From TrEMBL:
It is an enzyme of class 5 (isomerase). SUPFAM superfamilies: N5-CAIR mutase (phosphoribosylaminoimidazole carboxylase, PurE) (SSF52255). Its EC number is 5.4.99.18. InterPro entries: PurE_ClassI, PurE_dom, PurE_prokaryotes. It comes from Comamonas thiooxydans. Catalyzes the conversion of N5-carboxyaminoimidazole ribonucleotide (N5-CAIR) to 4-carboxy-5-aminoimidazole ribonucleotide (CAIR). It catalyses: 5-carboxyamino-1-(5-phospho-D-ribosyl)imidazole + H(+) = 5-amino-1-(5-phospho-D-ribosyl)imidazole-4-carboxylate. It holds the Pfam family AIRC. This is N5-carboxyaminoimidazole ribonucleotide mutase.
Length: 164
């Protein structure tokens, strides 16, 4: 087994519909990861234990998704220097704008890299983690470049009904 490189955490199992898009990308690139619920306000002691152990456990990035008063990414970042990639999960009442503002507005000194609300943000957080890991892994960089080439080809092959 390869050592786990990326930790994926979320505040609730209700975040999975969004966060599965991060996990799918990590699986696609063959990244060793773990995924679990770590709630900032329901499991604060577990959250701190997770964050405090992250560097020693060899995690290279933490993808943290949360919705509403989404303090999970920021609080994890407060307890580790492992890069934290925050994913705002769409909330029921404010559609994730609350989550986005909670995650993106970190005061100076403790950064959280913040991605788009929802599925695209989850997928892009994972792609960003892949890019971080690719700095030290030429084979992974080649996979990432191939992924980009595939996207380019797919976009070039797009057709519009008006041209059919
Ligand atoms: C946050 O509260 C979670 O990240 C989730 O997005 C939101 C709602 O959680 P549940 O009430 O669905 O468990 O902590």
């Amino acid at each position: 087994m390869n050592p786990i490189q990326v930790g994926v955490v979320m505040g609730s199992s209700s975040d999975w519909d969004t966060m599965q898009h991060a996990v799918a990308i990590l699986q696609q690139f063959g990244i060793a990861f773990e995924a679990q619920v770590v709630s900032a306000h329901r499991m604060p002691d577990d959250m701190f234990r997770f964050a405090e152990a992250a560097a020693d456990r060899g995690l290279k990035a933490i993808i943290a998704g949360a919705g509403g008063a989404a303090h999970l990414p920021g609080m994890i970042a407060a307890k580790t220097t492992v890069p934290v990639l925050g994913v705002p999960v769409a909330s029921r009442h404010l559609q994730g704008v609350d989550s986005l503002h909670s995650i993106v507005q970190m005061p100076k000194g403790v950064p959280v890299a913040t991605f788009a609300i929802g599925n695209a943000g989850a997928a892009n957080a994972a792609l960003f983690a892949v890019a971080l890991l690719a700095n030290e892994d030429p084979a992974l960089r080649a996979k990432l470049e191939a992924f980009r080439v595939e996207q380019t080809e797919a976009a070039r092959n797009m057709t519009l009904p008006v041209n059919a």
